[in-house]
What does this fold into?
Amino acid sequence: MLTNERPSCRSLVLSQRAHWAADQAIGFLMQQGLENRDCLSLAAGFVDESRLPVGECRVAADALLGDLASGRQALQYGTTQGSETLRTAILHHLSHLEQVPVDQLGITREQIVLTTGSQQLLALLADALFNPGDLCLVAAPTYFVFLGVLDGVGAKTLAVGTDEHGMQPEALEQVLGELEAAGELSRVKMIYLVSDFENPSGVTLAAERRTAIVQIAKRWSKEQRILVLEDAAYRELRYDGKPLPSVWSQDPEHEHVILAMTFSKSFAPGLRTGFGVLPTDLLAAVSNLKGNQDFGSAHWNQQLLAEVMVSGQYQKHVQSVREAYRLKRDAMLAAAEEYFGPLEGVTWVRPEGGLYVWMSLPKPVETGFQSQLFQRATKHHQVMYVPGELCYPQKTGTPARHQMRLSFGVLSPELIREGMRRLAGAVQECL
Amino acid sequence: MLTNERPSCRSLVLSQRAHWAADQAIGFLMQQGLENRDCLSLAAGFVDESRLPVGECRVAADALLGDLASGRQALQYGTTQGSETLRTAILHHLSHLEQVPVDQLGITREQIVLTTGSQQLLALLADALFNPGDLCLVAAPTYFVFLGVLDGVGAKTLAVGTDEHGMQPEALEQVLGELEAAGELSRVKMIYLVSDFENPSGVTLAAERRTAIVQIAKRWSKEQRILVLEDAAYRELRYDGKPLPSVWSQDPEHEHVILAMTFSKSFAPGLRTGFGVLPTDLLAAVSNLKGNQDFGSAHWNQQLLAEVMVSGQYQKHVQSVREAYRLKRDAMLAAAEEYFGPLEGVTWVRPEGGLYVWMSLPKPVETGFQSQLFQRATKHHQVMYVPGELCYPQKTGTPARHQMRLSFGVLSPELIREGMRRLAGAVQECL
It folds into this structure.
């Protein structure tokens, strides 16, 4: 070390973006997770560890690396857009999900971009579309991490009326009308929808609303295009009922709806691979931004996923995951009935899929990090949940403060039941 | 499909960021690569395919996935900051490179952030620090992809005088003095240095300049901290000469210098894993931004790298890669001597490491995509290089137009020789 001089150590001046990205809910939540390690977690959005495809990945890694040529290809740089092999496999995957032949999907693999989880796609889209002050319309409650992403680019998020069938088309029309009257229609860039088993509410957007919302987006694209972002992260985790046509399929020209999906929930989050299907004229912008960010997500992971998809292991795995989660959802619903049923004013949503049960308490009972309930639950009853207020736009509305997101992703059916028993105990003390 | 109505298809309005990120050099270059697939490529920054660690990764994947507990852990979500196991292994790695015991490095693993290649770290830092119009001081020429990242956040890039020993401290002082006189010192956020075998110039920053530049950054941190970003991507690829102390080690308090490194060049780019060592007070900002971007790079890849580092396979592999690249560098230098030696006014840098030879032609001979030389080289001689002008800030200076970056990363020694023969033929026609 060549100097004894004390550095000037002047204060660090961060960018506006860094300030916007500070104090996001996910940070508080992870901190709470760390501080409450002994709690049973009904909070974590992790997937079921016992169902992770260890054997499937071992076989696929061995197949890829057992051959020098395919091994070398997997370990070399890929492209910014991602592996052609995986993008081709995704076309077939979409064909299966959409129940139409590949050549009737109306897209080519050139419209697919592979990302680091679908989260990166959401972030790239926010970056590509929103100037500070631009508007995104969302259901309320909705996926709180995306609310943080929107905050991070200085966008404004407006909540649209939502019920047990998802975002209400008439409420959407009303908000758009008000914005037009206020001269702000040109700032509306996007309508964000978690179409299946929304995180956190478990709600599935009704079929007729899917059609209606796309029509509204088209009709209100008076000054510039209003895009619809369909976040279908949980789509493959349906436990009962018939799959609905995607929002994306309601826009056969594929000019208004962006489809975001991921392999994190259906296969393995450790591979951090998601994808988007984009309108052609949005591709270059997203690709340029991704080029600057990382010039491509890990090629090795993409090739590994292509291997399990082509071999059919992926499809088998999803089937088994679905069966396991169905049991856990049922365990949580049964425990809700058993322990919360007797408590007056407590209601919850029965999700047809996904990883979450959304529960509402009588309104005076608040659920936030500072609330009596959260403190009692984590300190005395050793159980943790996600406060519902995190899932509402913080700066442009009045979040409901009496709700909780309960995840059945991580714990076993037995521990789900025990967690629900503990939580009901804490709630009872606060009623 | 439920409608025959044509969508309004109003034009897409992109963000300011999307416009800034458009038209980057890397895009043009990749396009040229695609259009000239039949060329021998002295352009591609890819690594030597024949040296990719297929066997090492197979053993490591098998070890990780052969055990249910470690397999599940690898396939689960990690944290935004990245695997503790890999960050601990990196501490030992740094201890080896810096030649001091781990406990004298002056950091803990909490100051290490794992990213999607070091590229993502560069992008996150740009996002965390630069408001539009803020300034970054760079060597010229320098790594053109980072110039694109800076453009992408609206930063201004100023070239500092550079010679065969890297950025000149006296030139740096002069630029800072001029900025102070112009009242712009408070906009200087960063000095960017590729310390070893710079991409593209092959130049290594001299030891005494490393000390001097850190001192200058500290001394000129009058209004706010001026950070130094040491991009040490090629550090482990040294073929002769003694390793120099890092720039980072010249700042024992680790408050001014950020160290960026990657496993892409030394091991496998397909794993897309890099890392940064950050001043403590910059950690939260980078972590918040990364949380929004992807909440963590692929955990699976991080665990795989930790496995090869702990087993010692990594270190062995780097040794063998180094030997292979030394031969290829020597092949390129010998071919330069043979084919370009006879051409008057052609000079080149002999790099002690890295992947690039930097060649200057007599000034009237331009090398850009539109130049006679580039057209002749790619169309008639089937050989491609990177035009040197891409490696200078485009908007704040006059790039030199008579230089070329020649990569010996991808081709075999024989094809490097053939590529150089072809290129010399094209140059001769343009003299």
